Amino acid sequence: MDRALRLDLLGEVIIMALFKWISGKRRHRAMAPGMLVVALFLIGGIYSIAATPDNATASNARSALIEEGKNIFMRGCSSCHGLNAEGSGIAPSLIGVGAASVDFQVATGRMPMADMSQQAMRKKPVYSPEEIAALAAYVASLAPGPAIPTAEQLNYERDGNVAEGGELFRTNCAMCHNAAAQGGALTAGKYAPTLMGVEPVHIYEAMITGPQAMPVFGDQAITPEEKLSIIKWIKSVESEGSYGGASLGKVGPVTEGLLGWVLGLGSLIGIAVWLATKAR
């Protein structure tokens, strides 16, 4: 006889014997509290049996993801960041930077990079989204750090305010990224990149991790709701048209003044030469 069938039959025999015993003792004064205790134990046991496989599966999946991330790290990152992500003379430690920092740097193509002495530029990512998730999970397992914001946390259309975002951006970001978020030059040959076309998750991650020359804007400095307002304002600038004519890159009075001098002064010189020629 099959083992599973034998177990089923044995279970039925035990249940029938239990019911028979309960029927004989049902009038006993201790039966009600005793049955309550038995029921609680049964409910607890059933819940433990039902919940444990799911927890074990989730734990195993997480461990597998971290192990995959470690393998990716050893192949592509350890030569600069150290075998244990402790850092080196050419690259910083990754212990405590969190999953958000890894996602920002790798998903925007800034890492890996060949020359660590140069400023990392946004480009096409080297790794797939699945590999980036594994790498972020591994680095996050080394020490606590900022997590990747969820889709619910990034609902800037619902929770953001454009007017507030514009004011916050001009106060905290415009001195580097330009008043229209187009980017700008910094000292020592560095620059603040344009924020046009940047994914909302990466803007949020940059604010909470402070990549390269950018400061960290913690929740005490700029609250999560204010961060969403900044993102909403950036996206509104990105989608607005140039109603006054050519935008000239939206980099401010420098290009506008240059155009005015070149065209205006050039036109005046041309007119003066033409008038002098005609007077002869």
What is this structure's SSE topology?
Elements: H1 3-25, H2 31-76, H3 78-81, H4 98-107, H5 129-142, H6 156-159, H7 162-172, H8 174-177, E1 184-185, E2 191-192, H9 200-209, H10 224-239, H11 253-279
Helix pairs in contact: 2-5, 4-5, 4-9, 7-10, 9-10
Would you write up a description of this structure?
With 280 residues, the chain is mainly α. Among the domains are: 61-148, Cytochrome c-like domain (Cytochrome Bc1 Complex, Chain D, domain 2), CATH 1.10.760; 149-241, Orthogonal Bundle (Cytochrome Bc1 Complex, Chain D, domain 2), CATH 1.10.760.10. Helix content is 60%, strand content 1%. The chain has 11 helices and 2 strands. The protein has helices at residues 3-25, 31-76, 78-81, 98-107, 129-142, 156-159, 162-172, 174-177, 200-209, 224-239, 253-279, and strands spanning 184-185, 191-192. A two-stranded antiparallel sheet has the order 1-2. The longest helix is centred in the first third of the chain and has 46 residues, at 31-76.
